[in-house]
Design a protein that fits this description.
Layout (H helix, E strand, L loop, with lengths): L23 E7 L3 H12 L15 H17 L9 E10 H8 L6 E4 L19 H36 L11 H12 L8 E9 H9 L7 H18 L17 H8 L4 H12 L4 E6 L3 H13 L8 H9 L28 E5 L3 H7 L12 H4 L9
Antiparallel strand pairs: 1-2, 2-4, 3-4, 5-6
Helix pairs in contact: 1-2, 4-5, 10-11
């Protein structure tokens, strides 16, 4: 188990376990004095003398003693909003798509800009290879090679269809066909990426708050890629410790995966992935996406909220007209704003009341795209629990 309060160096043997290039993390930018900032924010909540600044909480020995006591007490009490002011910008390289999907993008409190498989060709050497040996390693590497062969073959096979469809839509551009090769092949990448291994490397900028890093550190030893996650998070923690050593005081040691409720249930119970898949497919009733649950009075609730915002009665504004004020682009100019002002506009905030829950059967590729909508929550599987060996895929 990694101990954040006695962090091993990234140059230790623990960082050399992958047979491929291990993940690399670089702290590009950060909020200075993050520890003091969280305490200053906490003290400001109860200050009769006005704002407390980070410099104030470390001004003297007495102030530092108070600082540490407040930091410990607010952390133990779950007063965590004070830790959300500090942000960290990481540059990550040699990170698998699997780890990004399963861990780094499995929550709403992040921002990432990562290399696109839709428009950038994936190369054969850019895969995470875990510490396997003998027969398992041979099977793993052969599978990667077969998938890459399929990927390249698909690109070649798709190009004639891509060209035909592209010039059907843009016939005037046929005269410039020789100059459009880069544009056309990217359309082929977009489809061919479906057969790429989830072990494919990505590089990205990943921005999180200090509080999110505390959570990462606590669940570093977790499904689905614990070894890779540990190495990524260990480097994140080390980088923050170098620029703000006081922050290390608030990192909790990782929770052993054996203590998680998911692990305990799987260890003590029998799973049947085939039976689960058949049941889930039955719930879909022949669809790939099915509305499973919804707010029963969604329209009336939202219309009532609109009237509440405007301070008018149903007599003055009926349900249909109330909804159109929010949902019709001809009436709601917020919908045309590139900055997406809907979360700030009083009228458009009424859209938070209706909720819809869908059962969806989709590829790993499509679900990774779904994750980009950070405020749309979803429950995603523990991959090992759903694997049966039975082919199940999207065409």
């Amino acid at each position: 188990m990694l101990q954040w309060h006695t962090i091993p160096s990234t140059e230790s043997d623990s960082m050399q376990t992958f047979l491929s290039t291990p993940p690399r993390v670089h702290l590009v930018d950060w909020t200075t004095q993050a520890y003091e900032l969280s305490v200053a924010a906490a003290r400001t909540c109860y200050s009769a003398k006005g704002l407390i600044y980070p410099a104030d909480v470390s001004r003297s020995k007495r102030a530092r003693t108070l600082r540490d006591r407040i930091a410990q007490s607010t952390l133990e009490a779950g007063h965590l909003t004070t830790r959300q002011h500090a942000h960290l910008v990481f540059a990550l390289d040699h990170v698998s798509r699997a780890a990004i999907w399963s861990f780094l993008h499995s929550h709403p409190f992040y921002n990432s800009e990562q290399v696109s498989q839709r428009y950038v060709e994936v190369r054969s050497e850019n895969f995470t290879i875990p510490p396997l040996a003998d027969r398992p390693l041979e099977i793993y590497q052969r599978t990667l090679a077969e998938q890459m062969e399929c990927y390249r073959s698909l690109i070649d096979l798709l190009m004639p269809s891509v060209r035909e469809e592209y010039f059907r839509i843009f016939p005037a551009r046929r005269k410039q066909a020789d100059k459009l090769g880069n544009i056309l092949i990217k359309r082929a990448y977009e489809v061919a990426r479906y057969v790429l291994p989830i072990a494919a490397h990505a590089y990205l900028y990943h921005t999180i708050g200090l509080l999110t890093l505390y959570r990462y550190a606590r669940l570093a030893d977790y499904f689905d890629m614990p070894l890779e996650q540990q190495q990524i998070i260990q480097q994140m923690v080390e980088a923050v410790q170098k620029v703000d050593p006081l922050c290390i005081r608030e990192f909790q040691d990782p929770m052993p995966i054996e203590d998680t409720p998911e692990y305990r249930w799987l260890a003590e119970s029998q799973t049947n992935a085939v039976e689960f898949a058949e049941e889930f497919d039955g719930l879909l009733e022949g669809h790939i996406s099915r509305l499973f649950d919804y707010s029963l009075h969604a329209e009336k609730t939202m219309a009532t909220a609109v009237r509440q915002v405007l301070g008018v009665s149903h007599k003055s504004l009926n349900d249909h007209d109330a909804l159109m004020l929010v949902l019709s682009p001809s009436k709601n100019v917020y919908l045309a704003e590139s900055l997406n002002l809907t979360s700030l506009g009083k009228l458009t905030r009424t859209m938070v009341h209706p909720h819809y829950t869908f059962l969806k059967k989709l590829s790993h590729t499509a679900d990774s795209q779904d994750q980009r909508h950070r405020t749309v929550p979803a429950s995603r599987p523990i991959l090992a629990a759903q694997y049966s060996g039975k082919p199940d895929y999207i065409i």
